């Protein structure tokens, strides 16, 4: 984020400012109670998903070099097996936390039914969103230049957002934060 602000807006904020702001915000929301915390988590999560889906649709509408295609789903087009292994590890880590809904069993109406629905629904929905976003951002970057996507020094998603949204790309940075 520091590089992003320096490159696009001409100022720099040290990493500890972001950490301090995040810890302060989390502490204030937690202090106010579980209900506010849960609502805020749902609202910010929904906003994040909408922003990421918007960037994904933008990538499909304005593809990079290689055009609109499904090559991102073909493992034979991967630049190396290391990339495939990395994608598997990232996918596993991305799912971490889906089971945390089970801790709300005592607060849930009809938990035997609703916890299972919530867990399976979240796994399926987030899996579909991850697959769509990974594919659409690769198409937006350009499938003919896929190796540069993984080797980019700046966050490729911020690069895409800057290309599509210019000054509004800060919205993606806030969503990813």
Task: Outline the structure in words.
This protein is an all-alpha fold and 177 residues long. It has eight helices and no strands. Helix 3 (34-61) crosses helix 8. The radius of gyration is 19 Å and the shape is globular. The N and C termini lie close together (9 Å).
What is the secondary structure topology, with strand pairs?
Blueprint: H1 2-9, H2 15-32, H3 34-61, H4 81-94, H5 111-141, H6 146-151, H7 156-165, H8 170-176
N→C terminal distance: 9 Å
Shape descriptor: globular
Low-confidence segments = none
Taking the sheet with the most strands, its summary is: none
Strand content: under 5%
Number of helices: 8
Helix coverage percent of residues?
55-70%
- Strand pairing plus helix content: what structural class? mainly alpha
The number of distinct β-strands equals 0
Radius of gyration using CA atoms only: 19 Å
Mean pLDDT across every amino acid position: 81
Summarize the helix and strand pattern as letters: HHHHHHHH
Give a short overview.
The protein is 69% helix and 0% strand.
Descriptive labels:
177 residues; mainly alpha; 8 helices
């Amino acid at each position: 984020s520091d590089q992003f602000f320096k490159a696009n807006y001409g100022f720099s904020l040290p990493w500890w400012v972001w950490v301090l702001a995040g810890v302060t915000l989390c502490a204030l929301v937690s202090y106010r109670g579980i209900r506010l915390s849960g609502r805020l988590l749902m609202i910010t999560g929904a906003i994040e998903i909408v922003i990421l889906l918007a960037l994904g649709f933008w990538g499909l509408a304005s593809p990079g070099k290689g055009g609109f295609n499904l090559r991102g789903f073909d493992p034979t087009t991967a630049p190396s097996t290391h990339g495939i292994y990395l994608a598997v590890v990232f996918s596993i880590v991305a799912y971490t936390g889906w089971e945390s809904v089970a801790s709300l069993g005592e607060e849930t109406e009809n938990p035997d039914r609703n916890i299972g629905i919530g867990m399976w629904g979240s796994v399926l929905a987030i899996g579909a969103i991850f697959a769509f976003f990974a594919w659409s951002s690769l198409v937006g970057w350009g499938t003919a230049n896929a190796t540069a996507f993984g080797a980019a020094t700046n966050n490729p998603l911020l690069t895409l957002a800057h290309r599509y949204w210019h000054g509004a790309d800060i919205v993606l940075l806030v969503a990813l934060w």
